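Lab notebook, entry 409. We have the chain sequence and a SMILES string for pyridoxal-5'-phosphate, and the next step in the workflow is to get a structural model of the bound complex before anyone spends time on docking refinements. Request logged below.

Task: model protein plus pyridoxal-5'-phosphate, output structure tokens.
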Amino acid sequence: MSSTLTHLECTACGRTYPADELIKTCPECGKVLFARYDLEKAAATMTPEALAGRPWNLWRYAEILPVRDEANRITLGEAGTPILPAPRLGAAFGLDRLLIKDEGFNPTGSFKARGLGMAVARAKEMGVTSVAIPSAGNAAAAMSAYAARAGLEAVVAMPVDAPAVMQAECVAYGARVLLVKGLINDAGTIIREGSSRFGWFDVSTLKEPYRAEGKKTMGLELAEQLGWRVPDAIIYPTGGGTGIVGMWKAFAELEVMGLIGVKRPKMIVVQAEGCAPIVRAYEEGAGHAPLWEGASTVAAGMRVPVAIGDYLILDAVRTSGGTAITVSDDELLEGAHLAATMEGISASPESGATIVAARKLREQGFLAADDEVVLFSTGSGLMHTDLVSREGLPVLDPADAPETWFAGG
Ligand SMILES: *Cc1c(COP(=O)(O)O)cnc(C)c1O
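Result returned:
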């Protein structure tokens, strides 16, 4: 199983470039580059029968992934995450076929492992020795882990108020950690400056072509896990948008390869009320999403005020007949609580947003009772225990009389 990577293609102006040169964005227009493959050749070996015997990791679909040399296919056991039925939530919301793809199982606890695993592996293959990233937290942790795995130097810049667990993870994996007074875009300014001074390779969202290829595996896996078909709708907590963009690309490639038909899921974006540039652009019918001033939400993964791939996200949403919706911080925290208490699923705040979005869209009639709906739980709740109140929990002393132990009943 070898990569059938052929070239890079600009998603805006259509110019093409050689795949084995270190190009980040389109040299002509600055927009997002996509990796392109010989899909006919890939289809000859990436058959359902052949796949059945392969491990469920990032490299399962190697024919349509960019890394050529097997020695560079580093893995920490990511991907192959379960699709869990959510019958109790479904019954409460009036959705008979509600499913949750639980990405919290990935190394470092979020789906960022897929994109950064791919970007780091391909960067290594291209001779890069140090990788750098601005991040709200999860991407930095994932890049740090995969850089350590690949033997590359890692530099991360993240907001000083990014979750302590994620900062600690980066330190633990040996990355150089820069804390920034500001948001992810401010961290981006610092990484860009460092990259031009010191030659770090910047793996910011959609500013190099290969993270999206890692995210693509979510769509490939979803189709395979459902028996080579797609659901009626996907609800995705959207920040920089690589997840939506990657899955949309996955479905197009699978159709060309004859593995799925023409049907596409409705691609549904959910963002927080305090940072909703894509939702605003969707509602205004715009093709681009200008910077959202004063971005603020507890869901750091969705606190992305401006996205370079805005036009690709909006195109996937519109072409698929999807929609874009906001939820408040209180609602997304309620969603995470519901996932945990009703289904036993540890959900990050971003994941909680998809739960409440499903409820709202059913109430509004956008989703029908018999629609098969897949929610992406992009991160584990275990990194967010600070958001769970433990106030007022009783502290028992076995030396006290037993009748005092259960004062609360
Ligand atoms: C980064 C992140 C997101 C946003 O993902 P994109 O694909 O960049 O839109 C959502 N949830 C979590 C937990 C994240 O870390």
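Notes for the group: Residues 184-198 form the longest helix (15 residues). Worth checking against the assay data. The chain has a mean pLDDT of 96.
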